[in-house]
Each structure stands twice: as C-alpha cells, then as structure tokens.
Amino acid sequence: MTSLETILGSAGGVASLSYLQTRGVPRREVDRELRSGALLRVRQGWVASPAANAEIVQAVRVGGVLTCQSVLRRLGVWCDDDRLLHVRVGKHTTHLSAPHDRRMPLGRPGSRGVQIHRTVAGSEALETGRSVDSVEMAVIHLFHCEPRDKVIVSLDSILNKRILSHERLEEIASILPEKFRSFLSLVDSAAQSGLETKARLGLRRHGIPYRSQVFVEGVGRVDLLIGDRVVLEVDGEAWHSGPLAYAEDRRRDLELLRQGFVVVRVSYAQVMNQWALIEEVIRSLVARREHMWAGRHRRAGLGGIALGGEQLNRTI
User: Fold this and answer.
1) What is the pLDDT of residues 299-313, one digit of tens each?
2) Do residues 159 and 89 share a domain?
3) 8 Å CB contact between 31 and 58
4) The model's pTM
5) Range 21-27, long-range pairs (CB < 8 A, 24+ positions)
C-alpha cells in the first residue's frame, strides 16, 4: 500500500475515489483496504486513512472540503479563531451531513460548530479536487467570511510568513468584488503578530500618526512608534510569557525610558478586550503633545537618535 499511502498522504489523508483513480490507484486496491480497515469510508466516494486530520475528515463528512480559517490556521496564519469548522461546498450542493456522523443531517450549521461557504463565482479554476482548499482558495473565502480588520490581520500574517506574495494577493483580489480590493492598501508585511495589526488599524481609524517596526539604537525594533516618542509594544501570549522574554522586555523598556521615549506596553487580553481604554490613553498622550519631542527634551539631549522604519502614517 506504499503508493496509496503516499498519494493519500499528499492529499491530507482524505481523498475522493476519482482523485485516487486519476493517480493510478485501482478501485480494487481501495476496496481491499476498506475491507481490512486500513482505509475508512468518510462519505460516498471519499475515503480516509485512520490517522487523517480530524478537521479534514469532518469537512468531507459534511459534504465539502476544508477552507477559510480552518486551512489558514493549519499554516500558522494569525486568525481570530471563531472555533468553527469552515467547509466549502458547491454552489448548489444539498443534503449536507453532521460533521461527526454522515447519517445525520447537518441542520443549522452553527449549532454543529460549522460555517458553510458556497464556492465563489470566478474561483472555480483554483479548485484542486482535494479535501483541503489551496491557500489561494482559502483566502478568497476569508474575504467573504470575515470583516475587514480581521481579513487584514490574516493577510499581514500571510505576507510576514511569506506564504503568499503581495503580487499573488493582488491577483486573487482581482477576481473579487471591488469592495475587497482596497483591503490590500492596508496590509503590512512587517507586522509581527495579529495583535500588532489590530493596534495599527485602531490607530489608523483615528488618524493617529504611527510607524511600524521602527529600529531604536540599543533596543531593536519596536512594534509601533506613535509620533516621535510614544512606543506601543504589544505582547503576544506565546512570545512574551517566559522568564527570558520578560526580562528582555523590561530591559528594552528601561532603555527606551532612558532615551526619553514614553512606553505603553499592553497585553494580548488588553488588545482583545480593552482596546477602547488603550485608545483613550494614546489619544490623551497625543492631545498633550507627549508623542512629539519638545524643546525641553532637546535641551536635555534627547530626541536626536536616528530611527528607521516604515514611513509615518497619518491618514485614515
């Protein structure tokens, strides 16, 4: 079964009989493996290995293929996890099944933890015939599924991880409705986390000037520099919770303060749940002009340190 194992593995552990047959796997071999228990029948015309990923199996059992967030999360893309199984089905597909039992009707998708996507017109050429959508198809459905800021969070992550290029995203956007194409003007491949993107977009909405991933001598790159001297550092749970990371963050903060910067360090929970408060603090600092170097700072020898980073953003 080596050949079948290889082919099935390349398809995510789940494949249609037609997909296997086009790759030279005879039906009698599939039937033999089904009888022995080496393969499992997921739904009519589809089989899986016992070790196949559970989400992929469930998507096929529903009657479609894995798409959108459910594909992107597997690649490490930053998504606002809605804890739903995202399944793409044909434009006219009916008789969908529950993800845990193909004999039961799906009913209301949300009650089963499922988000159904209908194949988008104009995207058919990107279909692979496998159990998992391509990144390109997943991105198309992300545009249709999520609000603008959440889409941009994921696009930033895709670019930062070099999963797709900006040029490829532009090609994808070209087949989408016009309203989605403007999203690409807001992406930033330098963003190191979805939290940073959320913070950046929040500043942009209020026309607060900022630069992202600015280099400060003796510190390194900071997440966001507001005006000339307010540093906004956004701590993700994964990268800032260990003792070494904690110590390094405090070293950086102290050095920034020594150089005259104002440091606002916020946590994952604060960005996700208390953004209005963060915004209030930053707008107060800006209103008091504390984001700009003043004469008193320059007389104290501060504000003369060279910085490098993205161009100052002042517009909504």
Assistant:
1) 888 875 545 555 445
2) yes
3) no
4) 0.82
5) none
| Lowest-confidence segment of 52-56, 221-225, 242-246 by average pLDDT | 242-246
Average the pLDDT over each of 15-29, 121-135, 157-171, 279-293 and give the range with the smallest value.
121-135
Instruction: From 286, 280, 226, select the one nearest 256 (Cα to Cα).
Output: 226
Of the CA atoms within 13 Å of residue 293, those in its CB half-sphere come to: 14
pLDDT of 315: 41
Distance, in Å, from the CA atom of 258 to the CA atom of 101, rounded to the nearest integer, reads 62
267 and 211, same domain (yes or no): yes
- Supply the DSSP symbol for 213: E
Q: 10 Å Cβ neighbour count for 207?
A: 11
Which whole number is the average pLDDT over 231-259?
Answer: 85
C-alpha 284/C-alpha 278 separation (Å) is 10
What's the token pair of residue 8? Answer: 């099935």
Strand partners of residue 233? 265
Q: In the 8-state DSSP scheme, what is residue 111?
A: G
Sheet holding 65-66, edge to edge: 65-66, 85-89, 114-118
Residue 173 structural domain: 61-186
Residue 240 has pLDDT above 80, yes or no: no
Identify whether residues 211 and 235 lie together within a single domain.
Answer: yes
Last residue of a domain, one of 186, 209, 244: 186
- In this structure, is residue 300 part of a structural domain? yes
* Structure tokens that stand for 5 in this block: 């194992």
Q: How many domains does the chain have?
A: 3
Mean pLDDT of 159-166: 96
> DSSP per residue over 239-308, as a string?
TS-SHHHHHHHHHHHHHHHHTT-EEEEEEHHHHHH-HHHHHHHHHHHHHTTTTS--HHHHHTT-S---EE
Query: Which DSSP string corresponds to 53-102?
Result: -HHHHHHHHHTSEE-HHHHHGGGT--------EEEEE-TT----EETTEE
